[in-house]
Write a structure and sequence with these properties.
Rossmann fold, about 280 residues, alpha/beta, globular
Length: about 280
């Protein structure tokens, strides 16, 4: 089984006080499994400014530092150190991209939370930002759409895409920290070979030891996309692998993903492998 999940630091972009506790909890679990500490950043935007600088006593910087103190507090007592910093940039995508490069991040984690069943204006704005970030950063990426608080029923479709490495890290972290057994699935259309998912599962077990933390099942159905949404809605949390870098924006923010995000009652984590 592979021991290293990513090279570089674990960078967490915090923005919303309501989302931060769940995002930092998940990031702390991932850090414990990966054997690393966390760098947390809050992006403060100054659109139209020629100089990317603000005085320490400006309201935006004070608010950002207060949020970052909360992020540090979330990890207190876990054994994971959190190094906070404020990044001033013309836009959030610019700030996150710069932070990834400056910190040498191997994994970027960001999140949004909303318990409503429909996509809000705020969520659409978050998606637009993540669309730009996904095209700009070369590191691994986990985009978290937090819905339910529970983590007892965890679903993880398997994939041959390199993003499965990122999904495997999150799955192992959840298993180790919550004790949950992961339900790994492959959804096959009618007419697919009887063992279509088995070679993928064997490789996942060989490289990531997934058979140590969950069970695998092949599901056959006439409409795989609809069945995937049903399976996600029957879970508390789902980890979905998205294609590598150039296809990420469409994969995460295309019609299928937007439908899943708007209809899912479970938390959905989107995992992508970087191109670095």
């Amino acid at each position: 089984m592979e021991q290293g999940y990513f090279e570089g630091s674990l960078l967490v972009g915090v923005a919303n006080p309501a989302t931060m506790p769940r995002l930092m909890q998940l990031a702390t679990w991932v850090a414990l499994t990966a054997g690393c500490d966390i760098t947390a950043t809050r992006i403060v935007t100054v659109p139209g400014h020629d100089v990317l600088d603000l005085p320490d006593d400006s309201p935006s910087i004070v608010e950002a530092n207060e949020l970052l103190r909360g992020a540090v507090e979330c990890a207190r007592g876990t054994g994971v150190a959190v190094d906070p910093f404020v990044e001033v940039a013309r836009s959030v995508p610019d700030g996150l991209t710069s932070a990834v490069q400056v910190e040498g991040a191997g994994l970027l984690m960001v999140g949004y939370s909303d318990d409503t069943p429909q996509v809000s204006k705020d969520e659409k704005a978050f998606d637009r930002i993540m669309h730009q970030v996904a095209r700009s950063v070369a590191c691994d990426l986990v985009v978290c759409k937090f819905r339910a608080d529970r983590t007892e029923r965890i679903l993880a479709p398997i994939s041959s895409d390199p993003g499965m490495r990122v999904s495997a890290l999150v799955c192992r972290a959840l298993s180790e920290q919550t004790g949950a057994a992961i339900r790994f699935v492959h959804i096959a259309p009618p007419g697919a070979p009887p063992n279509e998912g088995e070679p993928i599962w064997e490789q996942c077990c060989l490289h990531y030891g997934l058979d140590e933390i969950g069970q695998f099942e092949t599901i056959r159905c006439a409409n795989p996309d609809a069945r995937l949404l049903d399976e996600i809605n029957a879970a508390d949390l789902a980890i979905l692998v998205t294609p590598a870098r150039h296809g990420l924006a469409q994969a995460i923010f295309g019609n299928q993903a937007e439908r899943i995000a708007s209809q899912a009652t479970a938390t959905v984590l989107l995992a992508r492998a970087g191109s670095a």
